[in-house]
Amino acid sequence: MPRQTVFEMPFAKVYSALVGKAERKGRTRDEVDEVTSWLTGYVPEQIDELLSSDATYGSFMERAPAYNPASELITGRVCGVRVEAIEDPFMRRVRQLDKLVDELARGWPMEKVLRK
User: Fold this and answer.
1) Across-strand partners of 82?
2) Domain ranges in the chain?
3) Do the strands 77-78 and 81-82 form a parallel or antiparallel pair, or are they unpaired?
4) CATH of segment(s) 11-113
5) Where are the alpha helices (DSSP H) in the chain?
6) Do 63 and 53 touch, CB atoms closer than 8 A?
7) Distance separating alpha carbons of residues 73 and 75, to the nearest angstrom
8) Residue 27: which region, alpha, beta or left (left: phi > 0; alpha: psi -120 to 50)?
9) 114 three-state secondary structure
10) Is the dihedral of CA 70, 39, 5, 27 positive or negative?
């Protein structure tokens, strides 16, 4: 079976994994929705629509309504890779959202996660 890239994976599958990571550490889906909205510009209702559609994670990132310019403040490592050093802009976006959810799961206050 050919391997799928994260861009080809169903949005619902990837997002559920992000929510699961946060919930295992005592955070909520609403908080994941909040950081996702902050980063991408999607509102929670749009995220819900995407979850019930056949959208891919790649199309979710590609069609982000208002990608936050403050995303450049997201630095650090995800899976051993420095987020700010990723050259592919789409992969950087994937890793930025993953980094935000990691910070949530580590118990960071929302203000710090959202770079306020």
Assistant:
1) 77
2) 11-113
3) antiparallel
4) 1.10.8.290
5) 11-24, 29-40, 44-51, 57-62, 89-105, 110-113
6) no
7) 6
8) beta
9) coil
10) positive
SS (H, E, C) 50-74: HHCCCCEHHHHHHCCCCCCHHHHHC
Per-residue model confidence as pLDDT tens digits over 5-51? 888 999 999 999 999 999 999 999 999 999 999 999 999 999 999 99
Q: What is the pTM of this model?
A: 0.91
Q: Which residue has the tokens 């960071």?
A: 108
Which of 97, 94, 96, 100 lies closest to 114, judged by CA?
100
Length of the chain, in residues: 116
> Please, are residues 82 and 76 in contact by the beta-carbon 8 Å criterion?
yes
Residue 67, burial from CB neighbour count under 10 angstroms (0-12, 13-18, 19+): middle
> Is the distance from CB of 11 to CB of 55 less than 8 angstroms?
yes
